[in-house]
Every structure is written in C-alpha cells, then in structure tokens.
Amino acid sequence: MYCNIRVMPDTFGKIMRDAVQGHDSSYIIERDDGFIRNTSGLQYIRKFDEWPRVEQLAVEEMEGPVLDIGCGVCRVGEILVERGLEYYGIDTSPLAIEISRKRGFNNVYEMSADKLVLPHSYFKTVVLFGNNFRLMGQPEGVVRMLRGFHDVTTDDAKILGGSIDPLETGEEIHLKYHEMNREAGNPPGLVRLRNKYKGDIDDWWYLLLCTKELMKELGEQAGWYLEKTIGEPKYYVGILKKTH
User: Fold this and answer.
1) For residue 144, how many C-alpha atoms fall within 13 Å in the half-sphere facing its CB?
2) CATH topology of domain 11-242
3) Residue 148: HSE in the Cβ half-sphere, 13 Å Cα cutoff
4) Which helix (DSSP H) or strand (DSSP E) does residue 85 occupy?
5) How far apart are CA 100 and CA 93, in angstroms?
6) Boundaries of every domain in the chain
7) pTM above 0.85, yes or no
8) What are the tens digits of pLDDT across the range 99-115?
C-alpha cells in the first residue's frame, strides 16, 4: 500500500513532530505575491473540543470504514477510533505517517490522494478536513482525485470536503489576488504557496480554495453531487455523494 512520491522537503512532518512533542511549531505560509501568514502546528493536534464547530458537526455524518485524506498525525482518527469507527489515513509526509504509527494508528500509509492503492469499494466515508478538498491544487487535479475515490468507496459513500470560501473576505490584498486570477482565467481561490519553518523552505505548491459553487462543479465533473454544506460562510464542509 506504499507510494513513495514525496518530492518536497517534509516540512509539514517536522511541524507536526514538534507540535506532538510539545515544542514551538510556529511557521510561515508565504503566498507568491508576498503575503505572509504566521500560523502554528498546534492546529494539527487539536482535541475534538477545540475543533471548528463545523468539523464537530460533520463528524456526526461519518460512517465507517473512514478514509482520512491528508491525515497528518491523525487528529481525526483519535475521535473516530474512540467512537468505534474503522479508520484509515493517508498522507504524503513520511514523518507524519511514522508518528501516527507510534501513536497507535496502524492503518495509515504514505500515499498521494490521486494515486490510491487501497481496498476496492471499501470505504463509506472519505474525509478532507482542514481545507483538504483543495489538496491537488489545480481544478483538474481535484477532479482526478475525486474520480479516484470512486474505486475505493461503496455505492452509498459520501465525501466530507472542507474548504475556505475565498470570496468571504473584504481584505484588499486578497481581492487583488482574486482579480489577478480571474484575468489569468483561473478560479479566484487558486493560490501558490510555500512554507518556511526553522530554516526549511518548501518548493512552491498550489492550493485551491473553493466556493460552494466551484465545489459543486468539480464534484459533478467527477461523478459526485453536492448534497449540502454545513458550517460558517468562510470555512464550510461540503457533503458529496455518488451520482448514480
């Protein structure tokens, strides 16, 4: 079940390792227009009562077996295993997978979301929390990922996809970035980023923040329909089901 494809420095893995060990895990996310955001790796180890309310509500929609995409160090796995659900996770960070196994999660694998090597027609829920609906960056990459979920899920499966709605902002620097994207023929929420952490600098990578309309459109292209969304206007979770 292994797929060793990592090409960037394992910055996220180091951030999560330090957070788990109780060390400072503050890092920088830099956008290609120079916008900088300081954040913390503590978000990857938050306990259930510290999660965004929308994710707490979305857990009630889950049925096992559950596949957690971009599982990190299995913050989602903790609550699901506690509730008796069968849990699997994948991540492209070798260090995150190593840490997860040390924490007692055995069904976790180093693997890309668009190159799944997992049991056929097995999972009833696919989880993409923390903006992970946008993992594959460009719209065509997201569609390719969603199509791949067909092979590993049951006929009645659902996807729980988390995303920030990029249009839910009034900040001029973000609005200008949206306009630059539109002029280039891209969705407004397509961003090019890199992480900086304790001397490590990632390669540039793309992230696609989806409006609800774009999530619906990409889902339909891949054979999933957006049944409903839950949560706040800015960060929401879309629930997608297979088109029959």
Assistant:
1) 12
2) Rossmann fold (3.40.50)
3) 18
4) none
5) 11
6) 11-242
7) yes
8) 999 999 999 999 999 89
